[in-house]
From TrEMBL:
This is Branched-chain amino acid ABC transporter permease. It comes from the Bacteria. The keyword Transport applies. Belongs to the binding-protein-dependent transport system permease family. LivHM subfamily. It holds the Pfam family BPD_transp_2.
């Protein structure tokens, strides 16, 4: 039982890493209707900004706050100067552009700061506490709590505020939104800016656990995309629950399903996603899209 609890706790900790990136992807999707593959690269760039500020003597909290602000501006500029040229065209083209941005941002990070591992200070203590016989670090608990707060904030934003409803309206039908008087351009910039700011928080949470490198988010991005598909692209709560589920099931399968083991556990989330999509194509918490003809 002690081993089972430890695997569950470790799975929730790993799932939190995927969840914070998945939330940023959902935010862009709710604002533009696109899946932003560049989100991982933007989070890494923000993490390097935080690291650079701490290396120059700033406190970690202040460095994160400044990085969040800088990331908001960067995300808004990326939308205004790059993505806006493709958002009204073929969606597949826009997705390819985000993949190109991921490659570009990763290369810029490597060029500026090399590909060597950098030690990133943790926001939370590494001290462990015992919970039902499992050793849980304060960092894992803190990360879990931050993810829960962000999840509730985004859920409230999308469902309970005029700004969130406006973002969704622009993503669904930008022409109708513009005719209704909504400032479509500014809303798109705000959506990308908020997602980039959330990516800065993701980078600050993930970097201490993975060590800071330009490719730090590559694997996490794959899992985050699986969580977005599994949980539903329209549900912040859904993608977080899906990310936690992926982390837990992956850990349990690696230990208790012998033919999978640690070598094949990477396939578990994709098998889980495939099974769920066969039964419920919109994801566990997603809304079914109804097209009027």
């Amino acid at each position: 039982m002690g081993q089972f609890i430890q695997l569950v706790v470790d799975g929730l900790s790993n799932g939190s890493i995927y969840a914070v990136l998945a939330l940023a992807i959902v935010l862009v999707n709710q604002a533009t209707g696109l899946i932003n593959f560049a989100q991982g690269g933007m989070a890494v760039f923000s993490a390097y900004i935080t690291w650079l500020l701490t290396e120059h003597g700033l406190s970690l909290i202040l460095a994160i706050l400044l990085s969040v602000l800088a990331s908001f501006v960067l995300g808004a500029l990326v939308e205004r100067l790059v993505m806006r040229r493709f958002e009204r065209g073929d969606p597949d083209t826009a997705v390819v552009v985000t993949i190109g941005l991921l490659t570009l941002i990763t290369g810029i990070c490597g060029w500026l700061w090399t590909y060597n591992n950098q030690q990133f200070r943790s926001l939370f203590s590494l001290t462990t506490v015992s919970i039902f016989g499992a050793a849980v670090s304060i960092r894992s608990i803190g990360t879990f709590a931050v993810i829960a707060v962000i999840m509730l904030f985004l859920q409230a934003l999308f469902l309970g505020t005029k700004f969130g409803l406006a973002l969704r309206a622009v993503a669904i039908n930008p022409k109708s939104a513009a005719l209704s008087g909504l400032p479509v351009g500014r809303l798109l910039m705000a959506g990308w800016g908020l997602a980039a700011a959330l990516g800065a928080v993701a980078g600050a949470l993930v970097a201490p656990q993975l060590t800071l490198t330009p490719g730090m988010m590559d694997t996490a991005l794959v899992y985050a995309l699986a969580a977005v598909i599994l949980g539903g692209q329209s549900s912040p709560v859904g993608v977080v629950v899906a990310a936690w589920l992926i982390g837990v099931v992956e850990n349990l399968a690696a230990v208790y399903v012998h033919f999978i083991g640690y070598d094949l556990k990477v396939a578990v989330p994709f098998i889980l996603t495939f099974v769920v999509l066969v039964v419920r194509p919109q994801g566990l918490f997603g809304r079914k899209v109804v097209a009027r003809v």
